[in-house]
Structure formats: structure tokens, C-alpha cells
Amino acid sequence: xxxxxxxxxxxxxxxxxxxxxxxxxxxxxxxxxxxxxxxxxxxxxxxxxxxxxxxxxxxxxxxxxxxxxxxxxxxxxxxxxxxxxxxxxxxxxxxxxxxxxxxxxxxxxxxxxxxxxxxxxxxxxxxxxxxxxxxxxxxxxxxxxxxxxxxxxxxxxxxxxxxxxxxxxxxxxxxxxxxxxxxxxxxxxxxxxxxxxxxxxxxxxxxxxxxxxxxxxxxxxxxxxxxxxxxxxxxxxxxxxxxxxxxxxxxxxxxxxxxxxxxxxxxxxxxxxxxxxxxxxxxxxxxxxxxxxxxxxxxxxxxxxxxxxxxxxxxxxxxxxxxxxxxxxxxxxxxxxxxxxxxxxxxxxxxxxxxxxxxxxxxxxxxxxxxxxxxxxxxxxxxxxxxxxxxxxxxxxxxxxxxxxxxxxxxxxxxxxxxxxxxxxxxxxxxxxxxxxxxxxxxxxxxxxxxxxxxxxxxxxxxxxxxxxxxxxxxxxxxxxxxxxxxxxxxxxxxxxxxxxxxxxxxxxxxxxxxxxxxxxxxxxxxxxxxxxxxxxxxxxxxxxxxxxxxxxxxxxxxxxxxxxxxxxxxxxxxxxxxxxxxxxxxxxxxxxxxxxxxxxxxxxxxxxxxxxxxxxxxxxxxxxxxxxxxxxxxxxxxxxxxxxxxxxxxxxxxxxxxxxxxxxxxxxxxxxxxxxxxxxxxxxxxxxxxxxxxxxxxxxxxxxxxxxxxxxxxxxxxxxxxxxxxxxxxxxxxxxxxxxxxxxxxxxxxxxxxxxxxxxxxxxxxxxxxxxxxxxxxxxxxxxxxxxxxxxxxxxxxxxxxxxxxxxxxxxxxxxxxxxxxxxxxxxxxxxxxxxxxxxxxxxxxxxx
Amino acid sequence: xxxxxxxxxxxxxxxxxxxxxxxxxxxxxxxxxxxxxxxxxxxxxxxxxxxxxxxxxxxxxxxxxxxxxxxxxxxxxxxxxxxxxxxxxxxxxxxxxxxxxxxxxxxxxxxxxxxxxxxxxxxxxxxxxxxxxxxxxxxxxxxxxxxxxxxxxxxxxxxxxxxxxxxxxxxxxxxxxxxxxxxxxxxxxxxxxxxxxxxxxxxxxxxxxxxxxxxxxxxxxxxxxxxxxxxxxxxxxxxxxxxxxxxxxxxxxxxxxxxxxxxxxxxxxxxxxxxxxxxxxxxxxxxxxxxxxxxxxxxxxxxxxxxxxxxxxxxxxxxxxxxxxxxxxxxxxxxxxxxxxxxxxxxxxxxxxxxxxxxxxxxxxxxxxxxxxxxxxxxxxxxxxxxxxxxxxxxxxxxxxxxxxxxxxxxxxxxxxxxxxxxxxxxxxxxxxxxxxxxxxxxxxxxxxxxxxxxxxxxxxx
Lengths: 850, 462
Known about the structure:
Chain A is of the alpha+beta class. In chain A, helix 4 crosses helix 24, helix 11 runs antiparallel to helix 12 and helix 23 (773-789) crosses helix 24 (798-809).
């Protein structure tokens, strides 16, 4: 070991902390000591070994680490691995299902996957694990750095941009495409099956498996959407229902509802024709069938309005019951409404304010518990469960709507003008839907449907039928990328300009490209890196880039998991659906702000500010925020919140209904933020539930139960990583509120981060994590790449990830630099020509059985 | 716990409508006339394959001592009272319990697979095959029992089979431990490499079965347009193929096959309509209900309705998702499903988990009532149906796959005797029981299935 230490002596002095100009002077310093790690190789790796002394900055900002160019001979590194790693990773023990007994640095080029795996573990500082001997000095950094340089050199010799099959429009992309094309708001979930996720994302091409049901679903959607967009004067009677979550509070006015109302729901509903519609409300009942809220002192009233104008007032009969002929449903008389999107609202008329003279007044509560809805002494309010629109009765035609204005750019005045006008309409819509100019054959195909429709019902039906065909066309549904006919298997080809325009647009906007982008792509100008970057910047400045937050970040951070956690109604009575929505909105807005203001990625961890509205501010205990609008606020001093570790979304989605879970939180950090998920628990592990909930006559805290659990050595080996991370966040309860006690006992959140750092709270956790920004940055880059490319990031992509890392590091990890870095990467702009079709997918298919 | 009494469960309007529709004599008006003759010719039983995840509390040592899953006595004189199946007592004549079978193919076969039980078990349930560990599209397990059956006997009905589920399969972060989500989410596999998508929304299921459109003329109109659009789409795809790489071309070919399948479905509907159009259908359900029991019951309503109208004869129904932390307040315990399944072997933990098992089974009588209430030519629908209910896991606390829960309900067109508890010899693969089920269903020439070592008599126990 002595010689190893000697060999790495130089490395220790190579750490440097650069000074970064912070755009936001209010940000507090988050790192005060020079981090004890190095970073990946980059352009400056050939610098002479003499390093400038580390500049001592103003203490502001994030560290940017200099590379460690110490060189060790391959044989020395092989020895390091054998001595340090091969004890556990032996042929016999094979811990982590890995043997390094035969490791040889000189042969590692033949095992790039293994090398990348080692780099990941080493850069995260996770191996050797806590308690095992480590070589001294920066030997392990040198090992990682050497492996990285070798892998990068290997990649440079034979770059591999990867490959995948074509993508199809998933639910979110389909919604956006239809909105862009026809101006109608639709819910794709009404027709399309759930998107299968892989590697966090719903747009990964190879798991978008075809099936007859899927195809049928696209056709159903095309049928319905063409009718909604063009309008259907012969629309048949149908019912559309809007459900209101049980957890939705009915006390506050909902967005879009007229003033003076509370609860209910307000939605934009697209009416297929001018005509009469019946609006109906179904109210929640208690388990025995009576109205939830029947103990109210008077009958409440529900107002039905269209575009803010009162159309009907319905009485809620307190005596109503599910046993009644109409059950819990009340409906209006037929009401005349015009075709097109209209804002419709069903909401209770607000009849009282202020405190209620009752023992218990859980009026703000959701109805997670339905049984309290009829008990004397408890004030409850009735809840709307379903708001439905049935119609049209007596349709009279279709009047002007935004989508009709968009479709009918011309109107034939004489029969002779009809077909040329249809041609004009379909040429324009077709180019937009196919994301490229139409070929003569494309137009011909669509006009066949126009002609058939005209025969049945005239010009409008002709256009509608052509639009239906357009929406069913594989050119619309599939994002097929052209492959040059001459391309040799195994070679690399450039993604064509038109296809690159779509790649870029679906990446940054989650939507189809606009005409400028298509035009640049068609003319081949996107192959010019300057143009490509300028376009990326233009698109980032556009408000549509919100998709990077609502689609990319939301999936990366798993925000949708919050829907799966319903905090226990008795322990957390304040939790309601609106709060969950607000929490997700907070995180999305925060991420969007980082992108839009081109802030540092590390602000995700270090920010002492966030975005809240009044409800969320109250929930967090932040004073002085009034109203429903979100705004940027500073976390109060001593709030304990920092970066996304303070976000209610993250804290809730990593909890159980009735208790926090340091394990889930620790796992979330390791998996989502660091990209190093803990291995699965071995079979036959005793669960936390096995440990008693109480001891010596009092309830145990989660920590105490975990410590009993961790006494088992087979659990300990992983939980020594997971638990301290989660415990550091345990001052936040199930729904993200600050607490200092649990089950009556003071919380003890102390723990040792796996590198030995003592951490007791989120701030210290964040600092411990930022000692090693490398895994955080690389994992973020990998996620961004997977989302941008529509494929999982593989070991051969890691050199590209490191290249992006080096590029963004130069300017303190600015968000837009990551995005530009991905766009500039080979993987984004090139593709590898497949050697042959994937044999695994060739299984005998069974027509007829889907 | 007064809501365990079962009276006046909360119901929404649709359920009332649907129940009313199912009840006689209204239902007769709905069944197309002239269809009876084909039914007589084709006595293929209806099949419902239900998977419940996480095994059962009665599958560990303590649980089996307490008879929390399988009854103590085998044969006909078994006592259901201590078991999680006590709610089936009134249907014991329709009940065949097959205990003590193993799902060894769900076990790990290499060190990499250890711990991934929750993510591959479901794929094994109806295939009894081992899932290839992959997150990509090269998934492979086996063809599932329901699909082997649908391929042979499902082609007469407009829709060969349908796949339903209760839990949202949209798990953020995808799945884990190297397994593609389809292994966790799909129990029906039309071939070893083709998992079938699952429908969770009762409304979508309803519209897929009964069509969209107000009147039969309108539905016919839409079918006509749909056919010409299918022609158009397949033409477009064929021309698209020219400029594609081999992988993309392969995927497009798959879509082209799907087009032919959609066309076939339309033809089936039209053939059926020529022999009489269904006159009236209940209103489509509004969407996914909040409550587990309401959702399950809606799905059962839809299955009963589809059987009555003979739109499909095969359903697979996934009532749970591995790792789910749903709580079932009505079960009597507020422990979440997955944490409760790791009961630690303690008496209290096992009993708590058993409450959830019991609650899940108690969903079934509702469906059995429905089916029994439907008369078709020579008998009630329950006589004509085989319902499989089981789990590919045994003792969930250990993630083991031994002595897993498995029961049959219904008489499968008189092929099942009922009122029987078959205790398989130790080490019998569940595949043996499933092979016999396929024989019962009429797949007499099926000699192999999964890791089956032979058949298992489902009608007698010596």
C-alpha cells in the first residue's frame, strides 16, 4: 500500500475551487471546504502537472474541480483493483454479481461496460463501501480518471451514436400535436393506452410496442377528434364526464369558476354542435347511501355556468340518497350551448364564511373519510363527484369555433371552388401534421377521403373525413426517420434535416416543429452547428420549452408518484388534492425557472428560494404570501429547506400514507439524483413491519424501528448507504411539513453519509452530496439524453456524457449548456445503421389475438 | 366496521344502470337474435383469468397451520370458515381449490435475478415460464394460457380476448431490477415476445367492446370509414417502408399485421350484426372510480355484459400490481398492501395480511351473482364459465413461489364438478393444474405448458 500512496501524492494538491459569478447574490454559500474528489477528464487533461495554487474565492458559488492528471502505470492500477476490490468481488463471493479477480488494466478496453460500471461507483465514492480499507490519497480518483481516459480514447476511435427504432406519438406528444394542428384541447387518455415507461421516460422507442388495440385506439382518436375539430351537425347524443378527486377540497373557489362560488369544477369542454345539452352533477354519498354533508343546516345550491354566465341553479336536497330513483345525481333542463370550446363550471354558491360553531368543523377537508359526512356535531359540506354533459339534443348546426377558423382557411362560394379549396386546406394541414412538406402522393391520398366525404354530405363532411384520415396516417402518428438507401450496415449516418427538426422540437418543446424549424431542416441548414444552437436557444426562449419541466423534469424526478400517496386522513387532515397539485407545480416551476434563467444545475440542490402560492406557503409556514398565484420566495431562515429537498412534492412522494420512509427517501436520492440505485433487497429480509411498533409502553419513532431492522447484517450492507440520506430529511413529515417530534418522541436524524460525513439535516445532506458533483451531473445528463434520444443511455454513451459534463463545467453547469450539449452530441445528430433486425422481436406473432 | 355488512355499498349511476341491464328480462332484448344456434354449435366455455399479487397470508408456515388459505381437509368435506375464502361458502358447489402447487419459473435463475420477484412474477402467472431479464424490447417469457385458448376458440367472437386491470400501470421511473415494465403489468402474452396492453378505464373497456356511436346506423357508418382508412394506412405504411432501416421495417411489418387484425374485428362485428343488432346498451361508465371495490365491480359488470352479448369469451383481469401500497380500509386493516405482505411471520402480521386476502376474495361473489343471473339457452352463465383466481407468489414475506394460492370457480360448461379441494402432492408445478385447465377448456391436444410435468385431475381427489 505504501507505494500506492507515494504514487498518488501529487494528486492531493491538485484540487482547486474556482470562483463563479453568481447571478443571484442572495444565494448563500453552500460549500466552504474544498471537495475531496476530482472530476472527469476534459480538454485540460494534458496540462502540465504543475498546478496553480487553489484560489481562495469569496466563498460564493459552486466548486469547479480541476482534473487530476496523476499518472499511474497500468500494472499499478491493476494491483490497486486486485487488492482493494477483488476481496469481495472475487470469483467465489461475486458480490454485486461481479468478479474483479481477473481484472487487468491493459485489457479493460475489451470490457467497456465493466469499466463504465467501475467509473460510476468510483466517482460516486461508493466503493469500497464504508468500513472497508481504501488505498490512500487520490489513488481511486486516478484509477477512475485513467479508466475514463481509456474509455474516451476508445470511443474516439470508433464513435457509436447508437440506434433505435422509430418513435410514435405518445399521449403527451399526441395532445400537443393535435392542439398545434387543429386548436382543440383533448385528453389523449380518452383513447390511447398508457405509455410504457422505460428508464424513467414515456418516450423510449423500443418499448413502444405495436398492438392491434393500440392501432385501434389511434383510429378511434382520429374519428372523434376530427368531429370535435370540424364540428358535427349530426352529432349523436353522448355523455362526457369530468370526475373530481375525492381528495379535492370543496371550500376554495376553483380556477376558472365564477366569483362567489366554492368547490366543484371548471373545465373547457368542446361541444360538437350548437344544440341543447343537459348538465348533471353527481354528489358524494356516505357508505350507507345518504348525501355526504347532509347535516348541513340548510340546502346548498349548485350553480351551472357557461363562460361565466349562470345557466341554472340546482338545489341540493339534504335528504337525497342513493336509494332514490336518480341516486345522487341532479340535472338541469336542456340548455342551449354553441359548438366549440366553452368554459363550463359547476360549483356551490358560497353561502357562509368564517368559523363554524361545531365541535369539529373539517370543512376544508377532503373526503378521504366519507363516514363523517352525516354525523351531528361535525360540519361537513357536500362534494361534487362527477360533472357530466349530455347532448346535443336537437342540434341545429355548427357555428364558428376557433378550430373551424383554423381549418377552413377558405370557403367555396361556388361548387367549382370546392375542390381547390379543399386542396389548399389539406396541403397546409398535411404539411403541419406530417412535419414536412407534402409530396403529391400524400395529397392525393388525403383527397380521396375528401371526395368520398363530399359524396356523402358535402364540402364540410369531405374535409372532416380527410382530417380523420390525416390523423390516422402513419406519417402523423409515427416519427419515422428516413434512412439513406445507400447506407452501409454498421456505419454512421447523419439524421436528415427534416428529422433533426422534429428531434429538436420534441426534445425542447415536447411538440412538433414550427415552420421555421422545418424550413431550416428541409434546406439542410440544421447541419450547421451554429444554426442548430441558435435554433435551440430560440426554442428555449419560447414558452413552449416549459415541456422540459412539465415533461422531462417531472418524469425524471418522478413527480407523478405523488398521486399514489394519500396521506392518512386522520394524521394529515390538511392534505388535499389541490395541495398535491400545487406541490408538483412548485417543482415544475422551479425547474422551469432554472432553465429559463439559465441558472446552474447545482441550484437544484442549493437554492434557498422556491415558488409558492398562498396555500403552499401556509403549508410550509412561509409568511406573507397571499393569493393563488405562484411567486418566487426565499425560504425563511432556519426553515430547514434547501433546494428540492424542501419541496413538498419530493417529500410526499417518498412517504407512506401514515409514516415517513427514510428508506424511500434515501433510495429516491440514490436512484433519481445520483443514478446509483441500491441493489434489490435479498429475499427473506425481515421487513420494517416486523419490528415492533411499540416498546416499553410507547410508540417507536421510525428511526428506532429502522435501527432494530438494521441490526441485521444482511440489511446493513445497503441500508448503511440508504438510511442516513433519508434520515437527514426526516424533519419533514409525510406531506412535507417541518416537525421535530414523531410519535411524541424527539426526532433523531443524525447519521453518517457513506463517505463518513456526519449529516443531520437536508442542508448538510446537500453539502455532502455536492462534495461530489460528478455523479449528480452525469446522471442528470444521462437522463436528459435518454429523454432527448428516446432510448436508454448505454455504456457506450458515457464518453459523450463526460464530454457534455466537461463542456458545462466550464461555465458552472448552466442548464441551457446541458441542453445545447445534448443537441450537439453525435447521438442526437447521427445514428448508427443497424447490422440486422433485432432477432428477439421476431417471435411468431399471432394475428387475431391481441 | 358496519360497512363490512355489505349492504348499500356506494354506487354511482352507471352501476345502477348496468345492474339493471344485466338483470332479466332486460338482457334478453340485448342479445342478438339468431345467435343462439352458433352458441349451441360452439360450447367453448367463457374464461376469466384473475391474478392477485403478493400471494397469501395462508402460504407461510403459521398461515397454513391456521388454514388461512387452503382448508385443512382435502376432498369434498372442507371447511372454508377459517380461510380467506370464507365469502365463497355460498358458492362452494362452483368452487375447486387447488392447493400446494408451485410457480418455480418465477424464481430467480441467476444471481442477477435475486430480489426481482415482484417485477417478473406476473409475467409468469399465466405462462408458467421464466421471464428473460431485460429492460429492452427483447422481452421473452411464454404464451399465456388465456391466449392459447383465445387463439383457438376466440376467433368466433368479435374480440378474441380482452385484458383488464385495476392498478395504474403508469409507474414513474419505469420498473426495476432489470425488468421491463411489461413483465409487471401484463399477464396476457399472445406470444412469448408479445405482451398485451391492459385496459384500466372501465369506459375504454366498454367502448372497445360495444363500440362508439349513438345508433347502429352511425356505428355502421363509422365502420365503413374505418375500413377505408385502414386500407389507406396500410398503403401508407407499405410505401413508408422503402426508406427505412431493417429494424424500423420490422416494426412497421408488425403494425401491418395489426391492421389486418383490426380489419378482422370489423368483419366479425358486421357478420354478427347481420344476424341481429343488439338493440340497447347501458350508458358507458364515466371513468376510473376512486374506490377499489367500485372499480372491481364495474369491471365485473363489463365482463358479465360482454359474456351475455357474446362479444368476447376470454378476459384476463389483473386485480393488483406488485409492490402496490394501496390500502383497503374496508378490509379491516389500514396497512398498505405491500408492506402488509411482508408480515414478518408474526401472528399479528400474518393475520393482518390475511384480512386483505379475505377482502380481495370477497369481491368475487358479486361477479358470481352476476353470472349466475344470466341465462343463456340451456343454463346460467356461471355454469358456462371458468374463472381462475390465483397468485404467482406464495409466501410474500419471503418472496417465495411455493404453495401458491389457486382456485377455480364456475363449471366450464359442465366440465368442472366443483365443491372440491385438491391438495397436490408436494412439489407439483402450478403448470400441471393449468395444463389440465386447458384440457377442461377444450385444448385437448395441449401436452406441454411451462414447467408442467403432467396433468392434474381437476374433478376428483382421492
